[in-house]
Design goal:
8 helices; Rossmann fold; alpha/beta; binds nicotinamide-adenine-dinucleotide; about 40% helix
Length: about 260
């Protein structure tokens, strides 16, 4: 799909990977709807997109406060997008979080439910609820943010691994939507330099697993992931594809082998 002139919705776009994708899409000439529960971060992303007007192309963005765990909130997001911009061509289901401390098995049931509802529920609901708008448009592209933690067990945060594995299998199972012109794909980033890493520990300090992962794999920039998302949007042959970003484990289930580069940037 050609990105220029299209309408894109990005969840979790108030920070990190979602912000980088929103900006990359805007730079390519897409209109971007920034969806997040963080009003400050979401508005900042819109401001950064508006700043692009000073350069070439792009520069149109709106923030819509959205909780991806709430079907009504997502419905309102998509209705507002269609109402303002006439349709939806691209959805990046990206909002997500790690459990943070206390880690497994001392994590609270409430946090377990929250991680499930945001990371997996938000992707499933977002995909389901955008379909009518994409049908009206004659097709579209959905990219779901999974994680390399879908490929190997993140033992200190099993629910994170489980939700991300769920996102990849959900994405695969959505392959038949391509018959209606709706392509669903996923990105599986390694460790990315975003605010999420501090949330892996006590809110300020990284969890030990994140420190070890950094030593093993190094840190990606949010823009590395954004470029993989844009590649999947552009590539009309990409259907139910899992795009690993960074250094992947050689064999799923085996430890990560540094230098086993599958895809970078
Ligand atoms: N940072 C990494 O190392 C890494 C690696 C692999 C995958 N990911 C995934 O990338 C995605 C983005 O993470 P990030 O690293 O940019 O983190 P981040 O914390 O910088 O951004 C996540 C954004 O999601 C938003 N969000 C949280 N709950 C929400 C909800 N219910 N509704 C709407 N928005 C909500 C947050 O407010 C935040 O702005 C997540 O799905 C994450 O699991 C991150």
């Amino acid at each position: 799909m050609e990105i220029a002139g299209k309408v894109a919705v990005v969840t979790g776009a108030g920070s990190g990977i979602g912000r980088a994708t929103a900006l990359a899409l805007a730079r390519e000439g897409a209109t971007v709807v920034v969806a997040d529960v963080d009003d400050v971060g979401g508005s900042e992303t819109v401001g950064l997109v508006h700043d692009l007007r000073l350069g070439v192309g792009g520069g149109i963005a709106t923030y819509v406060r959205t909780d991806v765990t709430e079907p009504r909130s997502l419905e309102a997001l998509f209705a507002a997008t269609e109402g303002e911009y006439g349709g939806i061509d691209i959805l990046h289901n990206n909002a997500g979080l790690v459990s943070g401390e206390p880690l497994w098995p001392d994590i609270t049931p409430e946090t377990l439910l929250r991680v499930m509802n945001v990371n997996l529920g938000g992707v499933v609901l977002g995909t389901r609820l955008v379909i009518p708008a994409m049908r009206r448009r004659g097709g579209g592209v959905i990219v779901n943010t999974a994680s390399m933690a879908a490929l190997f067990p993140l033992t200190p945060d099993p629910i994170y691994s489980a939700t991300k594995a769920g996102v990849t299998m959900f994405t695969r199972a959505c392959a038949p939507l391509a018959e209606e012109g709706i392509r669903v794909n996923s990105v599986l980033p390694g460790l990315v330099d975003t605010a999420l890493l501090a949330k892996s520990g006590d809110g300020e300090r990284w969890a030990d697993w994140a420190v070890s992962a950094n030593e093993m794999m190094g840190l990606l920039a949010p823009d590395d992931v954004a470029q993989a998302v844009l590649d999947l949007i552009r590539d009309d042959s990409a259907v139910a594809e899992e795009r690993v970003v960074g250094t992947a484990p050689a064999v799923p289930g085996e430890p990560v082998v540094p230098g086993d580069e599958v895809y970078a940037g």
